[in-house]
Amino acid sequence: MTEPVARIYRRFAEREAGGRSPIYRDISRRVAADPEVLAFVAALPRPKWQPNLFYGAVQYLCGPIRGWPSFRVSFAERAGEIREVMLARTTQTNEPARCATLLPALAGLPQPLALLEVGASAGLCLQPDRYGYDYGRVRIPGELMLPCKANDATPLPTRVPEVAWRAGLDLNPLDVRDPDDCAWLEALIWPGEEERIPRLRAALEIARRDPPPVHQGDLRADFLALAAQAPRDATLVVFHTAVLAYVRDPADRAAFADAVAESGAVWLSNEAPGATPPPGIGPEHDAVLSRDGAVLTRDRDPIAYTDPHGTWLDWL
């Protein structure tokens, strides 16, 4: 039965790839109409049906995707290898520009900070103090400049936060010193967004000098033990971006929320509308929840609407 897979790819074409990657939009529509490709995806475990994972595996093995004809040839020639990559890897987009949307919230907290990122991938978002930022009316110099359009309501900082401790938690941590892991991160960048590649490479180079520690573990079982390692004289901040969608059971999300509360941390969640467990996002925020993109919440209260890749920020 391939219709559920076809629905995923049609939705991806219209809702996600639509305004960002014409190539992925076209390929997704064609995948949804191709019985052989649909059967290939449907034979994988359900969590592996994701278009991002499929396309990332093709780019990882075959190089940049230029369009449907070359994609279809690559699939026909290397379907077995593509399957192996999809089974071994997960979608772990690690966009350092997301730090630009987190920075105003981080800067407003008592310093220094102890940062704990859930779903940290290679840890590139664990180093907001190692980048520079350009918000237009405010510019913070740094080795890697991250441009971000911020609305007038955004409380823009004038300096990076002071980070006393940092750690990540991930089911499958990526190593910034491993060429294959770095190649996988690059393969997850979409056609049409090639300007992200130099930024990723620069962030990886910065991270290699002092790699942020990313521990293997599950947020449902290992979060509290890692949080307990944070220094007591720093403000513990737990944050994540586009992670809770992979925690499918609402009970698991609620248990994680309880664990964050038990840790005493400030909780910054940058997720799709409605992904963060209530309370906090209620009917009064319907205008925010009806929009595509990500909502940044602090302790489950919405504070900003953000671009998932960090290019703009609308403070509420």
UniProtKB/TrEMBL annotation:
InterPro entries: UCP012608
Origin superkingdom: Bacteria
A UniProt-annotated Pfam family: DUF2332
Protein name stated in the entry: DUF2332 domain-containing protein
Top-level taxonomy: Bacteria, Bacillati, Actinomycetota, Actinomycetes, Pseudonocardiales
